[in-house]
Amino acid sequence: MAVVGRAIASLARRHGGRSLGVAAARTVTTSAVPASAQAANAQPTGEFAGAGFRHGDSHKARAPRRTQGAVEGTKVSLMFRIYDKPGALVDVLTIMANHGISLTRIESKPTKASDKLFDFQVDFEGTPEDPRLEPALKDLRAHTVVADLQEAVNVPWFPTRARDIDEFSAKTLDAGAELEADHPGFKDAEYRERRRMIVKNATTFRHGDTIPRVEYSAQEVETWGLVYSKLREYTDKYAVSAYKEIMPLMEEHCGYAEDNIPQAADISRFLHQATGFTLRPVSGLLSARDFLNALAFRVFFSTQYIRHHSRPLYTPEPDICHELMGHAPMFADPDFASFSHEIGLASLGASDEEIERLATCYWFSVEFGLCMEDGQRKAYGAGLLSSFGELEFACSPDRPAGGRDDFPKYKPWEPEVAAVQEYPITTYQPVYFVAESMQDAKERMRDYCEGLARPFGVRYEPYTSSVSVDRALVRMEPKREELEE
């Protein structure tokens, strides 16, 4: 493992560090501050949903019943109104400091009643029964227009620890063992049974478990090999440099080879050493909310089954060729890992509309993203890196390419534009977003996430694989009608 460590350290030295959080707009988040974050196919796939979630389906459908309650840790919210004059805020903060109150968050806005008044929302560690509150409120009311405790904010349920992912990991929108009538393996009873056996790994997996190893058959390895050799030819031409630098490390340390299917457990261990990301087996497609929430804990859901051998260069869904050849290598790149982590953190407690926009940003980046290198468009999105046809279509300056004579449209990577861009899921993408670099893609995504109108900030704690928030919240479980959909 020492060799692995040196290789990973070399990658890390050439890239930026990882981000630890996403703050809400117009909000100062503090840490107890005293008051003074397609499958390898030459032709378009069928319903391609990215790696693990079906985009476009309601992210509320079949939502699991989860525990409603306050986020772990205690916060109290307080609103006060003061006149806009020199020293007014300092006076109020001094009162709080004198009562031993340390803020975790402060937000301000002018009142509608008068341009000379400002409202402040502050949050701090404590409970409504805290003995410091009553005397503090008494003093505050003597120096402000109004000062009152506020109700906790209701937000959609979200995990606060990596092990909370156990609560929804098996709640897929469809079962990985169940196939549609147009699936190449639909009439193959042996293939369907094989899928059921492999999917069982995901349904019994719990946080902290070692990912079960799959003994792949000679036929499965042959299918993998056909895809692997074809893709390596195209990724050498059109993939970003980070991908091409990482793949030899995956071959050396994770068992990537034309004649061997690497094990998810080995890949997960390698990624964890590189960027803190881990793989987690999944039995089918998840809701967008659940899938993105897992990224906040640097967890990526990955299938373990492979496409049907009768059509090795086609799949209507994510399989190990897509997950392990498209996604996994990029998660060893610090910039890409931080980029994905930002999207995950922003999804925690986000509204349905924000989840939809974040999922669309994910589609145009993590799945189909391009960036410039040496004046050429290169792919970093897994939907491209695992599809030699679309990879050529998106990146080649010549035509015909990818079996097509036409050119797609290219737009600069602007998350606020990508978030509302329509797209097909059964054909090559007519529009691709191009970042100036992976660093540029990450920074723009971070800026977009920080601008979301979420009423709280989040901070990731890497050593405990947990998140903390800066204000009092109630994580609401889904409504009954949503549970029954």
Automatic annotation (TrEMBL):
Q: Which domain of life is it from?
A: Eukaryota
Q: List the PROSITE patterns.
A: ACT, BH4_AAA_HYDROXYL_2
Q: Carries keyword Iron?
A: yes
Q: Which residue ranges does the record assign to the Biopterin-dependent aromatic amino acid hydroxylase family profile domain?
A: 143-485
> Which cofactor(s) are needed, names only?
Fe(2+)
Listed Low complexity bias regions = 33-45
Q: Which residues form the ACT domain?
A: 77-154
EC category? oxidoreductase
Xref: SUPFAM superfamilies: ACT-like (SSF55021), Aromatic aminoacid monoxygenases, catalytic and oligomerization domains (SSF56534)
Q: What does the record give under GO molecular function?
A: iron ion binding; phenylalanine 4-monooxygenase activity
Family of the protein in this entry: Belongs to the biopterin-dependent aromatic amino acid hydroxylase family.
**Name of the protein described by the UniProt record:** phenylalanine 4-monooxygenase
Q: Which organism is it from?
A: Cafeteria roenbergensis (Marine flagellate)
